[in-house]
Specification:
mainly alpha
């Protein structure tokens, strides 16, 4: 009952603010998409509201009504071309009825990604967007992480999460969230907030590791490496990393390290799960070669697997591809694979550009930190995505949208510096909050 009351109160407050301005409507959508209130209550009333659809449509509608300035550039063009490729692939799919439902969800994801670019126009809005993303999914997952850390380190957390998927996708999603939590902690001036973000940071990190996902473990190592290399203060970064290791590593059970050890000894695995992945990737190439222009259809790998499986069912039937890259290649063909890689490369390159440009101006310190956080978050999805079918995860595309928005914000701040209108560090101040509410 208390959960239901809480959910209704949150929906009411969020819905009220969503009526006030396009940006608040966007925040309401993001909060709903990540929190998934229908998963928290035992009544059909919340799911019958279809909040995701209604709030998404409202974001676009109120943006049109308030005459928001829509933007266009090469990276946005790639997003729309990729969406077009998914649409054509779906139309040509032998499993059209299966693919169509997934495509409509992805259509909504790209629309919201574009609205992020349009509506996140300054650093205060950028920070609010990151804050809502973090709290909507991070509070509960951090709680689970701390629970396992303090009471049951010998267990591993197999709980799926609808916003991400199975435990492997949860590991990658949580790791993608960790750098954003770190950004919020680095850029707040309030001690209580720093404490909260530290709680969320460690809890979400352990939540990721407690899945015992090998792909997540590799992604965590890649993230930590990039973070240390990019850090301006290597000694401070090393001390921070050491503190985290002291808290987390000793509590990882032997079963965790035994599973990680199979990364090097996959050929001796009894279930041959790693060898199975290699086979699934080979099947993806078979699909792409059979349908080089459009693939087998968006999300069509699973229903097409039995037809293209050359092992005679050795690894089962109706299997998943277990790789974002091979999944896109099989489902969208070679043009889709190229577009997907260009979008990801553009996002990483954008983060590097913003990081370098903002680092030249002491006033833009928060922008450089934001670029680094987004880049490390992308690393989690890029590395972890090698082992999961995570190309449709909403958070990945929203982060891509944030990289485009951040580059536009940086260009705007540089112009203000050149004209003498911007002085002092760009930070989340009372005046920023006023601008965000406008």
């Amino acid at each position: 009952m208390l959960r239901s009351i809480l959910v209704i109160v949150l929906i009411t407050i969020g819905g009220y603010y969503a009526l006030q301005a396009p940006f608040y409507a966007l925040l309401f959508y993001i909060g709903n998409a990540y929190f998934r209130p229908e998963d928290w209550v035992w009544m059909d009333f919340v799911s019958s509201l279809r909040l995701s659809l209604i709030s998404g449509v409202w974001v676009v509608l109120i943006s049109l009504l308030t005459r928001q300035r829509f933007v266009w550039n090469g990276r946005i063009a790639l997003l729309w071309l990729f969406l077009l490729q998914t649409f054509l692939s779906t139309l040509a799919s032998e499993s059209f009825s299966y693919s169509w439902g997934y495509w409509t969800d992805f259509f909504k994801t790209i629309i919201i990604t574009y609205m992020i670019v349009v509506l996140v126009t300054d650093i205060s809005k950028f920070r609010l967007m990151v804050l809502v993303m973090t709290l909507a999914v991070g509070l509960e997952q951090a709680k689970q992480g701390w629970f396992y850390l303090l009471t049951s380190p010998d267990w591993y957390n197999e709980n799926p999460l609808s916003v991400f998927g199975d435990n492997n996708a949860v590991a990658v999603g949580m790791l993608g969230l960790v750098p954003l939590i770190g950004l919020l902690g680095q850029t707040t001036e309030k001690k209580w907030a720093k404490t909260l973000y530290s709680f969320l940071f460690i809890g979400c990190l352990y939540r990721a590791l407690s899945t015992h996902s090998r792909g997540g473990f590799v992604a965590a190592i890649a993230m930590a490496s990039v973070w240390w290399v990019k850090s301006r203060h290597k000694l401070g970064a090393s001390m921070c990393a050491l503190a985290i290791l002291v808290i987390v590593i000793p509590n990882l059970p032997d079963t965790f390290w035994d599973r990680m050890h199979t990364i090097r000894t996959y050929e001796q695995e009894e279930d041959q799960s790693a060898l199975g992945r290699l086979h699934f990737w080979a099947v993806a190439v078979e699909m792409a070669n059979a349908h080089p222009l459009l693939g087998v259809g968006y999300f069509g790998y699973n229903p097409a697997y039995n037809k293209y499986d050359f092992s005679g069912g050795k690894y089962g039937l109706w299997r998943a591809v277990h790789s974002s890259y091979f999944g896109v290649l099989a489902e969208l063909g070679y043009p889709g694979g190229i577009l997907y890689c260009l979008i990801l490369f553009g996002a990483l390159r954008s983060c590097s550009r913003v990081y370098k440009r903002a680092s030249r101006h002491p006033a833009l310190l928060q922008l450089s930190k934001s670029a680094l956080a987004l880049q490390i978050s992308l690393i989690a999805f890029l590395v972890g995505g090698s082992f999961i079918s995570g190309q449709s995860i909403e958070m990945l595309w929203h982060i891509i949208g944030l990289t485009i928005a951040l580059e536009r914000i940086t260009a705007q701040c540089e112009a203000e510096i050149s004209s003498g209108e911007l002085s002092g560090e760009v930070r989340y101040t009372a005046s920023n909050r006023k601008d965000a509410a406008a």
